[in-house]
Amino acid sequence: MIVVIGGGPAGRYAAMRLARAGKKVQLIEKRSAGVGGQCLHQGCMIICALNDVARFMQQARVFQKYGFLGSAEGFSYPVLIQKMQEIIKIIAGVLEEETIHAGVEIIRGSAEIQGETLRIDGVETPYEAVIVASGAHPRIPEISGCCLPGVYTAHTILSMPTLPKRMVIIGSGVIAAEFAYIFSSFGAEVTIVARSSLLRAFPEQLVKEARKDLSQVTIEEQVTVAGISGQESVTGVIIREKDGMREIAADAVLLAAGMIPYTGFISGIACGPDGALLVNDRMETSVPGIYAAGDVTGTGYLTPIARHQGRKAADAILKNPFEPDPVAIPQAIKLKHDVAYCRRPGEVRKGLTIPGPAGPGTFWEVTNHHTGSATIEFDENGHLIGLAEASPVASVAMEYLGWMMNSDIRIDEFDRFIEVHPSPDGIPWLLKYLNGKKSDNQKGS
């Protein structure tokens, strides 16, 4: 028997791959809402659902400004959350049916690991191998007031009963930016309080585009939070300044200070400083027969990487050859535009940027100069080492462009590329331009 702990992207993918290979597999899922993990229940799908509505409301305001659409009244935040959860329940049912159909036995319960010993709901359980895919949970900063009513994380935000008038988001990364865009579009007055700078891991051009999308949000950077104020419920966030303390009023506070691997049920296995399970290149932990995959390994907190690691752990058990790890990993966040990039790490790069073209989703933004942008980055030899785009289609385009980079496809091969027109995707234009410039330089020499 192979036991997989956690029914998120890593665990479910691994369990199905093992079952289809003829292995007997039990998937242990403690979440009463079903499989799908953080991605479905507290992450990616939540952002997609809320972002769809936020974009719709912002687009309606653009049309109202042009004068051919009347005002839209009657937005109900509670109804939005209710209907979204109904659809998530449907998706969870589809995923569960798919998992069972693959031959996986799903068990509702909790696991505990002590060295080589596995217990399911307190009962010691023998196994051929174990894959730990328990995911991650929000990091709670060490500041006073985090337990006050009205303070939320990405895992609890759906319990917020009504749309707040004033929200403070503590954090500077993807979660902070995405929820800031959503709630400001819904009409809340949103302030981001960042210890460092906004989206500091993103390419500079994309940070500029993100700031445009967050123009309704107050962004306070390089700020130290001294505490969260309130008695029976939250009333504000206190920040420390040179001249003393200042309070930012808030009806709700969202903690978006990053994620930490969920390993509280594990002992006797080597972990990193943040609790992440340490694994080798075969996804094996320090205990023979126990593997780990996904967010619990602390590597990126990205759903595609979790799936890749789940497959890799399954293949290690099946003694199959591995697919190579990607060098360049495409990433995207959803604001007014998709803000996406893919880079080879550790390269010295030059960049070339153009505004995004008019097309579906950007035509009515031409007069606002808000059509996004496209950037390519290349080394001194003209080899492509990075791509970045802000556009309505950037996340879809970037996954194929990321595959191109990881497959070492040359820029000159884009001479054979035919794009779809009209499109707000500007990267094909840039790639063809760079290739033409390279050819002109070669002819000139």
Description of the molecule:
- This protein has 445 residues and is of the alpha/beta class.
- The protein has helices spanning 9-20, 37-41, 44-66, 77-101, 174-186, 204-213, 303-318, 394-406, 427-444, and strands at residues 2-5, 25-29, 104-108, 111-114, 117-120, 123-124, 129-132, 136-138, 151-153, 166-170, 189-193, 218-220, 224-230, 234-241, 244-249, 252-255, 259-261, 266-267, 290-292, 331-334, 338-343, 350-355, 373-378, 384-391.
- It has a 5-stranded parallel sheet.
- α3 (44-66) crosses α5 (174-186).
- It is globular, with a radius of gyration of 24 Å.
Please summarize what this structure is.
By secondary structure, the protein is α/β, with parallel strands linked by helices.
Q: Classify the beta-strand content into a percent band.
A: 15-25%
Number of extended strands: 24
Mean pLDDT: 93
Strand order across the largest sheet: 3-2-1-7-19
Radius of gyration from the alpha-carbon trace, in angstroms: 24 Å
Largest sheet: 5 strands, parallel
The number of helical segments is 9
Helix content: 25-40%
Q: Would you tell me the structural class of the helices and strands?
A: alpha/beta
* Gap between N and C termini: 65 Å
Q: Which word captures the global form?
A: globular
Low-confidence stretches: none
